[in-house]
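Suppose you are handed a protein chain with no further information: no name, no annotation, nothing but its sequence. What can you learn? This example shows the usual starting point.
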Amino acid sequence: MNIILLSGGSGKRLWPLSNDIRSKQFIKIFKKEDGDYESMVQRVYRQIQNVEPNSIITIATSKTQVSAIHNQLGEKVNVCVEPCRRDTFPAIALAAAYLHDIKGLSEEEAVVVCPVDPYVNEDYFVALENLQQLAKKGEANLVLMGIEPTYPSEKYGYIIPASNDIVSTVKTFKEKPDVKTAESYISQGALWNGGVFAFQLKYVLKKAHELIDFVDYDDLYSKYETLKKISFDYAVVEQESAIQVMRFHSEWKDLGTWNTLTEAMEETTVGDATLNETCEGVHVINELDVPVLCMGLKNVVVSASPDGILVSDKEQSSYIKPFVDKIDQRVMYAEKSWGSFRIIDIEEESLTIKVTLNPGHQMNYHSHRNRDEVWTIISGKGRTIVDGMEQPVSPGDVVTMEAGCRHTIIADTELQVIEVQLGKEISVNDKQKHQLER
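A reasonable first move is to predict its three-dimensional structure. Written in C-alpha cells, the prediction is:
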C-alpha cells in the first residue's frame, strides 16, 4: 500500500500539551501492552505496518514537525517536507511530485491519503487497502472513504452517495453545515467526510499542473511559499464529478478536542495524579514532576505541562482556542531529532534548560554570537567537541563555552544535561551551524 499521512496543524485545542511545534499527534497518551505510552502518529504508523508490513509510508508535514517525527518514528521514515504551511492541496501536490520524481513511483500507482491522527482499529487500514484497490481499477478519478455518522456534527463535511451500496458513486459533496442541515443530510443517507481518499498518481499530478505552474518536484518546492492556501476538498474534490465513496462502519474518532481525546484514554490518569473517591468523569494528564490532586470534581479535564496548566469542564474545553491565542509565551518543551529539551527557568540574562539526548545522537555543531553556555552532565555518558577538541563526559562534568565557540555534544548512552545560557541577548535565532571535520 502506498499511503500519504498528512501531519499538519498546530495544537492549540489541546493546550497545554501541544503548541505550534508539538501538535496533538505527538502527545504520548495511549498505553501499550508493555506499559509504555505512544502518540497518535506512533499508533497509526504501527497499525499500518501490522496490517501491511511492506507499505510505503510517506508523511507530508511542515518543517517544524520533522524533528518530532524522526524522534518518534526514527530517521528512516519517508518525510515530504513543506517549506511552509499552505493547506492540504499544495501539501498533497508536493507529496505526489515527491513520490513520482524523488521516489520513482509510476504515474499509474494508486495512492491513499489520510490524516495522521485518527483513533481507529486495524480494520480501518484494511479498508484503506480496499480503497487503494478501487482507485487502481480506475472507475473513478477519486475514491473517498465515507464514515457512517453517529450524530449530526458541524465538524465534518458530508458525502451524499447515490445508493446505499458499500461502494457507490457520489451524488453531492457538502462542506461543514449547521446542525439542522447536517440532520437533513443524514436523512438522505449522507456520510461523514473523514479526509481519506485514493487516486492514481497521474490524476493529482495532472490537477496540480492545471492549478500550479511548475515543472517538477524541485521547482514546486522552490515556489511553494508563493502558492495559494487552499484545501484539497475545495480545489479538487468539489470540482470533480467522477467520484466513488466506500462506506466505513467501525470505530473512528477525531481526537481534536480534550473532550474527545479523554474518551479514547484507557486510564483516567497519565503521570503523577490522584483522584479522591468523589471525583466522577475526571481525566488528568500530568507531564510535570509535581503531584496533581483532584477532589470532588465532576466531568473535568486537568492537563499540566511545562507550557501551562488547564483545568476545564470537558464540554467547555472545546472552546479553548481563542483563550490560548491570547497567551504569549515561548515554547517550553519540544522534541528534536536528537532528543528533547525542557526550559526550567527564565531570567532576564539567563535561560536554564534540561536537555535529553537519545543514544547515538548529537546536536548540530554550532556557535552563538551573543551568549555563553555552560553544560553540566547529570546522567549518562557521551562526548563533547569544543572548537575541534573532543573529550569524554560523564555525570558531574562541567563544560563551558564562550560566545563564538563552536560546540556539540554526542550521546553514547541516553544523556541528560543541564544547559545554562548566559547573555543580554538570548534568542533562538542566535545560532550558526558549522561543518564538523573529524
